[in-house]
Write a structure and sequence with these properties.
heterodimer, A: alpha+beta, 3-stranded antiparallel sheet, two-stranded antiparallel sheet, 7 helices, elongated, B: alpha+beta, 4-stranded antiparallel sheet, two-stranded antiparallel ribbon, about 10% strand
Chain lengths: ~210, ~230
């Protein structure tokens, strides 16, 4: 078995090696050499984290079911959901771009929320590791850069302004849900997920290894 | 909420700094350690003896550095740079109003906002679709060139530049999403229609390629050269 050192941390930006120290909740340890964040102590315990993830799941459903923008032009009405927006790209010569767009604003956030629900739901029962925990954690790390809810929100706002000179524009319920999802997903799927490894490490008392 | 902790606010970090104030902290490479890129676990480095070693905790393959970092980063960056030309030249959107239609490119969209007095929104689109991609090309080019030479110039600042490229990069997808939302809304057949055009495909691919390029770059290479 390969030897590993949970008391050490290596800066992923410059390879400097440090001994881990316990941090107070909310504190951040930075690399003395390149100033990158080494790790931070989460403000959330597993129960709160799970609660916020459930809230993110609710926001996700509302954001995807209800229209984000409604417009009217001379008595004609039209509205669009996130999915319809991605699908609108699928017509004409630019069709292939609809796939990454749908992934970035719908599929990836959905997977992040689902994986977190799965992992946290098990972890809160005595620090247990869910079936497929290793794969889920690797996927969560890999998915993070491709989640673009905040870009979607800015895109919706720019579109509203762009169209407001041409048609009557009204925000739909989806826009508020997207804004809520943006905030919640930033909190729950941030880079602090590493400590779940230590939290769910068997043989350790609960709550330790948060540093 | 999170307050940044200065390195000297913490025992061990301060300890290492005090021991050797003029030299750099110990590197994992020199200590015979390797950290997992997926879960961050620090492991003993046995890559010499065994070719492929999975992380004992999460199962991802361990690497000292990202494989072929510089070559991959260059390749993806050059591909992005080439596609950036059709992305700007070709129309991204087709607007038809009461039978008369017109194509618009990314820059003509910015100009249209600017000329109607919407300076703020013109600036947002300009930053997301022109300033950010161009800044990324320049930054990654600079990082690649200086890293290949093993330069010790401004290492800390170059590390920060890399982190900025990582954080800012995906905002360029803004234009793709604007076209998507607008095209989904304006479909009053005959009266007013907006359709995506091929330029937006090139533009989206440019954004994805620059993101992949930034991900292939290993910022640890900045620190691998000798000290002056």
């Amino acid at each position: 078995m390969l030897k590993s050192f949970t008391n050490l941390v290596v800066c992923e930006h410059c390879d400097a090696t440090y001994t881990r120290v316990a941090l107070a909740p909310g504190e951040v340890a930075r690399c003395g050499q390149c100033d990158a964040v080494l790790y931070r102590a989460s403000l959330l315990d597993v129960d709160r984290w799970l609660a916020l993830t459930v809230a993110a799941a609710v926001a996700f459903v509302i954001a995807n079911v209800s229209p984000v923008v409604k417009i009217s032009l001379q008595g004609l009405h039209s509205q669009a959901t996130l999915w319809q927006s991605a699908a609108a790209l699928a017509h004409g010569p630019a069709a292939p771009i609809a796939v990454p767009t749908a992934l970035a604003i719908i599929v990836v956030p959905f997977m992040q929320v689902s994986l977190l629900l799965w992992v946290l739901g098990h972890a809160r029962r005595g620090g247990r590791r869910a079936p497929g925990f290793r794969l889920a954690m690797r996927m969560l790390a890999g998915l993070r850069p491709w989640s673009m809810v905040e870009v979607a929100l800015l895109g919706i706002l720019v579109s509203v302004i762009k169209l407001s000179s041409m048609v009557e524009v009204a925000p739909g319920a989806g826009i508020w849900a997207t804004a809520a999802l943006m905030i919640l997903i930033t909190i729950v799927a941030s880079r602090d997920i590493h400590w779940l490894w230590e939290f769910t490490d068997r043989g350790r008392p609960r709550g330790e290894g948060r540093s | 909420m999170s307050r940044p902790a200065a390195p000297d606010a913490h025992g061990s970090v301060a300890h290492q700094r005090e021991e050797a104030p003029m030299s750099r902290p110990a590197r994992a490479l020199d200590l015979g350690l390797v950290s997992c890129h997926a879960c961050g676990l620090v492991c003993e480095d046995v890559l010499e003896r065994q070719g492929r070693v999975p992380c004992p905790r999460c199962g991802a393959a361990l690497h000292r550095r990202k494989p072929d970092s510089l070559a991959r980063t260059w390749a993806l960056l050059i591909a992005a740079l080439i596609l950036y030309i059709p992305a700007n030249v070709l129309p991204v959107m087709y607007t038809s109003l009461l039978g008369s239609g017109s194509d618009s490119t990314i820059l003509s969209g910015v100009v249209a906002f600017w000329s109607t007095g919407s300076y703020g929104i013109a600036l947002v689109i300009f930053i997301a679709s022109v300033a950010v991609p161009c800044g990324k090309f320049l930054s990654l080019g600079l990082l690649l060139a200086s890293t290949r030479r093993g330069s010790s110039w401004a290492r800390r600042e170059r590390s920060k530049l890399y982190r900025m490229v990582e954080v800012v990069g995906y905002w360029s997808m803004l234009d793709v999403l604007v076209v998507a939302v607008v095209a989904a809304l304006i479909r009053f057949h005959g009266l007013a229609d907006i359709e995506p055009r091929v330029g937006i495909l090139y533009f989206g691919v440019v954004v994805i390629l620059t993101m992949l390029s930034a991900m292939s770059f290993d910022p640890r290479l900045i620190w691998d050269g000798k000290d002056e």
